[in-house]
Write a structure and sequence with these properties.
Strands 1-2-3-5-4 form a five-stranded mixed beta barrel. A hairpin with a 2-residue loop joins strand 1 and strand 2. The chain has about 90 residues and is mainly beta. It has a single domain, classed as OB fold (Dihydrolipoamide Acetyltransferase, E2P) (Beta Barrel). It has one helix and six strands. The longest helix has 7 residues.
């Protein structure tokens, strides 16, 4: 599934897992699809490569996502996994 979204905020979520402390980079998205956009924001789990390349400069950008997994996160918020297809006008491989 593909979605065009705007990054509202970049944040990190820290918690204690079975294997000890863990930190996950998250980008908060607002769906910007022209037809049938989601009404609520959702969180995208940024992988290490994306965080290294785009971390700190994603807020306010329009990004196209290739979504591979949708599931509930902490507090019932929607959590998305996948990969970036476009970052602004830059197409990713």
């Amino acid at each position: 599934m593909t979605a065009q979204c705007e990054v509202l905020e970049e944040l990190e979520e820290s918690f204690i897992s079975k294997r000890g402390p863990k930190t996950v980079a998250l980008w908060v998205y607002l769906d910007r699809c022209r037809d049938g956009a989601l009404r609520n924001t959702f969180d995208y789990e940024v992988n290490a490569g994306e965080q290294e390349k785009f971390g700190g400069k994603a807020a306010g950008k329009i990004i196209e996502l290739l979504i591979s997994e949708i599931r509930p996160g902490f507090g019932g918020r929607v959590r998305i996994k996948g990969r970036l297809r476009k970052f602004g006008d830059e197409v990713q491989s």
